[in-house]
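During the reporting period the student researcher (J.K.) took over the structure-prediction task from the postdoctoral fellow and processed the backlog of single-chain submissions. One of the processed entries is reproduced below for the supervisory committee.
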Amino acid sequence: MSEPQGSQGTEGTTQRLPVLEKAPDTGTDTGEYEPPPVLEGEAEGAAESRFWSARRVPAGIVALLLVVIAGFFLYDITAVRAEQPAMRWRRELAAQLAERPLDDIWVLVGAGIAAALGVWLIVLAVTPGLRGVLPMRRTRTDVRAGLHREAAALVLRDRAVEVAGVQSVRVRLTRTKADVGALSHFRELDDVRADLDATLAEAISGLGLARPPALSVQVRRPGKKG
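J.K. obtained the following structure tokens:
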């Protein structure tokens, strides 16, 4: 006689599926946007250095001037070595430098221009430039990201016009402050301002900037036509 295979056969061929436990309800909406994570060891909003500009135009101008001046002097020195008279401009320049006193107006003007150019070149050498690019928080050590101020201002403007009661929005964004001016054609101004504060604060947090700008919101009624 053969034993029944009902329950044993079913247990031998059926696999138990994993059970997914439901996370406890904490009262927060997990569908909301979360800002990019911050690297371990870095504080929230830590200062991130600005991007350095290549400054190709100033460098090209200085290089071109140096090449032209050096070419003139090299040609003149070569002519003198070949027993040719020196160029007229160099003879006059040498005579003027030898005869004019240091307190002469033209000497002072030339010295002032040279000093101003020197200070300008030093400032360009020690400052990063690219003020229109806002550094973003690093999520990886080998990647640096930046966001153009125009793009960030456009994001804030698009988020602001979604608020009920807002007719038009003007956004002026700097590295440290976001000035938002809105026109509201209905609803109470205080309610519109409160909604704008909350919406724009969330939008600034979502940009992932290393140094989020301070928010300033102003709401007013449109002016009367005519």
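The committee noted the following: The chain is about 45% helix and 15% strand.
J.K. will present the remaining backlog at the next meeting.
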